[in-house]
Amino acid sequence: MASKIKKIGVFTSGGDSPGMNAAIRSVVRTCAYLKVDCVGIFRGYQGMIEGDFKPMDARSVNNIINKGGTILKSARCDDFRTPEGRKIAYEQLKAEGIDAFVVIGGDGSFTGAMIFNKEYDFPVIGIPGTIDNDIFGTSFTLGFDTALNTVVDCIDKIRDTASSHNRLFFVEVMGRDVGHIALNAGVGAGAEEILIPEENRGLDRLLESLKRSKQSGKSSSIVIVAEGDKTGKNVFELKEYVEEHLPIYDVRVSVLGHMQRGGAPSCYDRVLASRMGVKAVEALLEGRTNLMVGVRDNKLILTPIEKAIKGTSKLDKELIRVSEIMTT
Amino acid sequence: MASKIKKIGVFTSGGDSPGMNAAIRSVVRTCAYLKVDCVGIFRGYQGMIEGDFKPMDARSVNNIINKGGTILKSARCDDFRTPEGRKIAYEQLKAEGIDAFVVIGGDGSFTGAMIFNKEYDFPVIGIPGTIDNDIFGTSFTLGFDTALNTVVDCIDKIRDTASSHNRLFFVEVMGRDVGHIALNAGVGAGAEEILIPEENRGLDRLLESLKRSKQSGKSSSIVIVAEGDKTGKNVFELKEYVEEHLPIYDVRVSVLGHMQRGGAPSCYDRVLASRMGVKAVEALLEGRTNLMVGVRDNKLILTPIEKAIKGTSKLDKELIRVSEIMTT
Amino acid sequence: MASKIKKIGVFTSGGDSPGMNAAIRSVVRTCAYLKVDCVGIFRGYQGMIEGDFKPMDARSVNNIINKGGTILKSARCDDFRTPEGRKIAYEQLKAEGIDAFVVIGGDGSFTGAMIFNKEYDFPVIGIPGTIDNDIFGTSFTLGFDTALNTVVDCIDKIRDTASSHNRLFFVEVMGRDVGHIALNAGVGAGAEEILIPEENRGLDRLLESLKRSKQSGKSSSIVIVAEGDKTGKNVFELKEYVEEHLPIYDVRVSVLGHMQRGGAPSCYDRVLASRMGVKAVEALLEGRTNLMVGVRDNKLILTPIEKAIKGTSKLDKELIRVSEIMTT
Amino acid sequence: MASKIKKIGVFTSGGDSPGMNAAIRSVVRTCAYLKVDCVGIFRGYQGMIEGDFKPMDARSVNNIINKGGTILKSARCDDFRTPEGRKIAYEQLKAEGIDAFVVIGGDGSFTGAMIFNKEYDFPVIGIPGTIDNDIFGTSFTLGFDTALNTVVDCIDKIRDTASSHNRLFFVEVMGRDVGHIALNAGVGAGAEEILIPEENRGLDRLLESLKRSKQSGKSSSIVIVAEGDKTGKNVFELKEYVEEHLPIYDVRVSVLGHMQRGGAPSCYDRVLASRMGVKAVEALLEGRTNLMVGVRDNKLILTPIEKAIKGTSKLDKELIRVSEIMTT
After folding, report:
1. Are B269 and B253 in the same domain?
2. Res B219: pLDDT
3. Nearest C-alpha of chain A: how many angstroms from B279?
4. Are residues C52 and C165 in the same domain?
5. How far apart are CA D71 and CA D60, in angstroms?
6. Domain assignment of residue B323, yes or no
7. Which enzyme type, at the first EC level (chains A, B, C, D) (predicted)?
8. Of the given ranges (A169-178, B91-100, C214-223, D9-18), which has the lowest mean pLDDT?
């Protein structure tokens, strides 16, 4: 098979996530293996517009598989949202001889790639990199598994002090639109209650649940709250609300914040990233485009980027039920 | 639905794995939630024969979801392999009023359960708990994900010292019959070569690969060797062989050993264990038996224990190919 | 030597810290070794007043050396601040036959012990357990070393995402009155600036420093802020201030919070706790009282509790200088 | 103060240890801060002889404080043991304009530096970097604290599986000549017995101790064995011996190996390395030479290298006693 594609660009875009470096490494090494040139594009679309490029060979990605963050940096880029910006980007790519690119990122990054593909018939493949697992077309996004381990490790620590003092903690985790982190980490950390953006079961239910938990003899309680929770109250307001309505508890708050994005990726994320990078390059060389690599039933699949963007990644109802049974 | 089952026993058997405690907790809490009695059986079939039982309620499994090992202990049991042993076990269960049991373990433990089920028409459900991921009927066994993280964490450390000294390390990981740990951890840790029980590509190939790795400018090399590797040489003999035939390397050996079985379970293993425990109890209450809970495409499924035992859990060919590309 | 003391009480009080369980274990096992009875007192002075006691033998502290928190729980207790409360506590101790106690905690807990000792001539020895390292008479308090590792581990993760996006982070760590955690973790994490309660070098200096850091080509900046920092602004206000006066930065905030108190203790804290527990029991049996065990120059020392309370634990000036040089 | 020294070389030598990168960073940044040139020398004395030099500025050590291993690599070097080798090394240093050097390593590396200093009157300062803590003139060497945490973390994992199966484990840790790692990690991990090079208490005592441990009701036992243990048996032979003479135990062996040298350094090691690097550079600029930086009573001190080499770093008798009491 002789592909027309001779030089592939790779970049990371949007919020970073653990596993992005492993994906970059995989794209670079697959290019080397298949004798195609590879160019790293720094700071996402911003660097594309500025021509911030660097040729990469197999050795340039040594010892990064276990590093959090992204060696190619990431950035949000308003210019790429304009036709003028995209035109400059296209010219920069052409000047560098780049025939196609692999974009590692989330919804916003894919939208840019799709538009660019349509405007310039430029081959693009996406790899889903975000801790939120909020992308349709894949069971797991890169970084989700690592973020879950980071969150349960933090909550295990918080549990130590919570149970020493018989305290209640509200712990805020990432997830503006979807509750994947909250639900999975909540089950994994043995949380008493999990508040997610997908459903608002009301504050009364929360109070009932906490009252029951106390009566059942538990020495501490952890309530996980996704950023995008729909109770209408943030974690600090929830604390006040419970202190007022359920004064049997000594309440504390913890906002886990950006550490959820960092850290050495888990083995799962490293392996998934390695697999996805191979698939992305091979898809491009086979002449395919405008697709996102995903994993389903432990097999790699390709989904049109348009569908990936428009679809929603739904919470598993069975897992919601499991979370309720576990708090018995 | 009024089930005939009023009291469920739960135990762990065979080699322990991270997530077993989370599965015990889930079985116990699901029983409490569904108003069924639950009894913990200590030391697997041995404790069953000895009547080493303890009633468990929801509080008796507090704060164990994040603990490695198994609070119910595990043991291998020769007596249960005899009809006499199983007869005593049956009498002990009846005396305690136990109607059904959930066994958490691997192939050997399931075989015992299947025979017991046939002999006494006793309802049994299995949950696959083993770090080896060597069970047919499930994409993941409990403990596999955690073990992978433990292994890559160890190899990351070994890599630090290997690359400081430009050394070659042979690292032995668990896996007598299957190479799942070796292959996944090998990809995750960026190993230069992976030796697995499933295929013997010969020592010449290994030497070639190491020679090429050195020439490509890599500062260190890690070769992962599964216990059951088929080169005919163990890690120490491999070291000698390479030192003799490829004296360009300073070679060291590390045998990771039993620490691979321990440690706080990963979030994935905790969640999977929680889900499987619910499924196991519900299956029993629905009158089902002689089945193993598994996960496929992120959904829980039930497989006849007989098939689970006879089938084999094959390595993913695509991942073998990825491992080769990554060592470019 | 025949000591008059036949039964020793042990409890934890105030904020919990990693290593407290290791200290409890050491007190209990030293008592067993020296054939003295030992009684665990739950929830600090509150449990003492309520007679919440439990006899402890060597086996009752199995497998706790690596657990965060405190199996004896902790609590703050207003009643013990009154003569009436202390009288009841004394009567409870006498009724249980407790001759002396070891209190594991911080300043507040020691003050209570000292007053109690004076009022009832009751033998007491203190073990400093607090992550803040804010106690005179010891180079290290139990939990400080572990908390530092927790903090640098979190900041390493934050650094991953900060440097991927060229961001500035304000990270708040514990330390209301002293900056030990901020200073040590700041040096350990390679922070660009460290704001501590002991000195307010002004916001102008901060802006200067951040401007210089940016100019020097650093890809990210971390500023560590102790809770008790004296700039007059909390981390959120600092963020706003910098965004207004130094718009070259994209600024984020992270408040590490209570996870700093939890987690498996470091080896150092486990060893120190083991040593201090032995020393505390031996001191009591030698007829000594009203002293705190400390460590200096890697040797255990005893300091009158009164001095421990009144003295202050000063920051190391040399380390402040090191922190400045490191940000070059 | 105008020092004659204008350009300082820095290198790592001998076995690597966590914290070496933090020390390199500190030397480089202190040079930058004090306006002195700094040159990295790769692969220790070998690179010195080969002229493998690289000028380093403050930015060239970004993001290495948390990395295990050494970016300057390390090597053992036979040539430097000959006058001819040292002559070439001296000429290389002169050609590069290097006036003085900081050597980060252990006994062997310091011996080389001392001889070189005498032969060429070349200013040298040593920083003790080794996980073994076997150097006179300092309470802690760089990497010791990190290695202890790595070891107890591994043993915590082994304990999980040991106690699930009521097993006895012999765990071999590093330490050919001194038992610092074995003793401290043994106390920290709650080992039942610790076999160290410094004293051979005989196999009878070991059997007695294990028998007593079993009788006392412990569910598992961990025996820590330093590499240089003097029983005359290695861990595998110890296993056989115990199986033969004390068949009540199911015995396993684990050799932790080289992972003890790697991993992100602990906060303590990072801070100590930062302090030592400053001290080393300042000492050179003050005209001092042939000294090793150490820490005692949390203050930095300087010891003549000759004394550091000849002295021995003794085990703390008090800690040996603590280890015995803890196994009650």
Report:
1. no
2. 76
3. 9
4. no
5. 10
6. no
7. transferase
8. C214-223
Q: Verify that C211 and C292 share a domain, yes or no.
A: no
Chain-chain contact of D258 with B254 (C-beta, under 8 angstroms): yes
**One-letter amino acid of C211:** K
**For residue B217, what pLDDT is reported?**
81
CB-based contact (8 Å) between B215 and chain A? no
Q: Alpha-carbon distance A45 to A24, whole Å?
A: 16
Inter-chain contact A67–C160, Cβ cutoff 8 Å? yes
Of the candidates B70, B162, B163, the beta carbon closest to that of D164 is on B70
A234: contact with C, CB 8 A cutoff: no
Domain of D277: which CATH number?
3.40.50.450
Q: Are residues D298 and D285 in the same domain?
A: yes
Name the domain boundary from A202, A235, A261.
A261
> Looking at beta carbons, which residues of chain A come within 8 Å of B299?
318
Per residue in D181-201, pLDDT (tens digit) is 999 999 999 999 999 999 888
Instruction: Tell me which chain C residue has its CA closest to the CA of residue A265.
Output: C157
In a domain, A123, yes or no: yes
ipTM > 0.90?
yes
Distance CA D3, CA D1 (A): 6
**Cα(B15)–Cα(B27) distance, integer angstroms:** 19
| Percent of residues, chain C, with pLDDT higher than 90 | 90
Structural domain containing residue B12 = 7-143+265-310
Domain annotation covers residue A20? yes
- pLDDT at residue B299, as a whole number: 96
Contacts of C196 (CB under 8 A, 6+ apart): C175, C178, C179, C182, C183, C226, C229, C315
* Chain center to CA of B221: 27
C228, C243, C261 — which closes off a domain? C261
In this predicted structure, the answer to whether residue A168 has a pLDDT above a threshold of 80 is yes
The shortest C-alpha distance from B325 to chain D (Å) reads 27
The residue among B77, B164, B223 with the most chain D CBs within 10 A of its CB, best to mutate, is: B164
Beta bridge partners of residue D196, listed in sequence order: D199
Q: Is B95 on the interface with A (CB under 8 A)?
A: no
pLDDT at site D134: 95
Domain-embedded: residue C1: no
Instruction: Looking at the structure, tell me whether residues D235 and D288 fall in a common domain.
Output: no
Cβ neighbours, 10 Å, residue D304: 14
Paired sense of beta strands D167-173 and D221-226, if any: parallel
Say whether both B139 and B150 belong to one domain. Answer: no
C133 touches chain D (CB under 8 A): no
Contacts of B251 in chain D (CB under 8 A): none
Same domain, D106 and D164: no
Q: Does A189 touch chain B if contact means CB atoms closer than 8 Å?
A: yes
Count: domains in chain B: 2
Q: What subunits make at least 3 CB pairs under 8 angstroms with C?
A: A, D
Contact A267 B218 (CB under 8 A): no
Tell me the nearest-neighbour CA distance from B266 into chain A, angstroms. 6
CATH assignment at residue C242: 3.40.50.460
Q: Is A320 on the interface with B (CB under 8 A)?
A: no
Phi/psi at C284 (nearest 5 deg)? -60, -45
Would the CB atoms of A267 and B316 count as touching at under 8 Å? no
pLDDT at C218: 82
**If you count residue pairs, one on B and one on D, with CB atoms under 8 Å apart, how many are there?**
117
**Residue C159 contacts residue C202 (beta carbons within 8 Å):** no
Phi, psi angle pair for A47, to nearest 5°: -70, -30
* Beta strand spans in chain D (E): 7-12, 37-41, 53-55, 100-105, 124-128, 167-173, 193-195, 221-226, 250-255, 291-296, 299-304
Nearest chain B Cα distance for residue A11, angstroms: 19
Catalytic residue among D37, D99, D107, D132: D132
A297 is known as an active-site residue: no
Q: Are C192 and C218 in contact (CB under 8 A)?
A: yes
Summarised one tens digit per residue, pLDDT across range A235-256 is 999 999 999 999 888 999 999 9
